[in-house]
Amino acid sequence: MARCRKVQPLAGQVGWTHHQVRLDAFSDRPDVYGWYAAKASANRWSRRHLQAQIHLGLHERQGAAVTNFEVALEPTDAEQALRAMKDPYIFDFLELAEDARERELEQALIHDIQKFLLELGSGFAFYGRQKALLVGEEEFFLDLLFYHHSLRRFVVIDLKVGRFRPEHVSKMNFYLNAVDEQLRLGDDRESVGIILCADRNETVAKLALHRVYAPIAVSTWKAGTPPPELPAVEITDEVPADLGDLSELDTVRTRLIERVVRRTPEIAAGDD
């Protein structure tokens, strides 16, 4: 009985087409199937958004950024913050020239802010672009500033159209200190920075972050290709005469779910 109670809520929280999309992609990888099932349910993804995330390999990108969170944050906070980061970020809506500059990249991202926020992930709220901070009678400008409601932190994003360089870390460290001093209120936690580059060397990034205690992630961005379109489905109240016995649909659905349950013991086992 515990097995049914554990699986059915997860299976029932998303539409049948969601199950079909995941089965088509991961019928032989029940762990990844379950990962996307949890994500789709928690974030209320549409079928099209689920398909897009599978196409872009979200399960391989989430938590893959180079960070110093392990030493800069408490263990629980470090794990949550890492899950909120990706590498690479895929901006399949960008239309940029090869010689585009940082300001043009920034403008393109803000121009399609809804898609930008979808790629950043749940919890991000846009706070401003070119946010001015006055420090020692000098003005400094943040490329992009967000607030993450789950992490309860400001997130500063510094955009780069070129390769990551170690000096980017000291600049971000300064920005985070200034944001915490001027914008952080009440129970806001220490701000986090994302240095978003077109390319990076992992070894260089790790060494640049060594002994830096402000929480910083180094990630890359790519202008990807949109996922293939699903065929249009015509909605009608009429049932075609040659459709066959509709009573078999429930049987097929049950067998498919049982197939996934058998291959996913950690989901089916319950809390025992």
Description of the structure:
With 272 residues, this protein is of the alpha/beta class. It folds into 2 domains: 2-56 and 248-268, no CATH class; 59-222, Trna Endonuclease, Chain: A, domain 1. Helices cover 46% and strands 18% of the residues. It contains 13 helices and 7 strands. The chain has helices at 2-12, 16-26, 30-43, 47-55, 58-61, 69-72, 75-83, 102-111, 113-120, 167-182, 202-209, 248-263, 265-268; strands at residues 66-67, 89-90, 124-135, 138-148, 153-159, 189-197, 216-222. Strands 1, 2, 3, 4, 5, 6 and 7 form a 7-stranded mixed β-sheet that branches. Helix 2 runs antiparallel to helix 3 and helix 2 packs parallel to helix 4.
**What is the number of helices?**
13
Structure class: alpha/beta
Helix percent reads 40-55%
Q: H/E series, N to C? A: HHHHHEHHEHHEEEHEHEHH
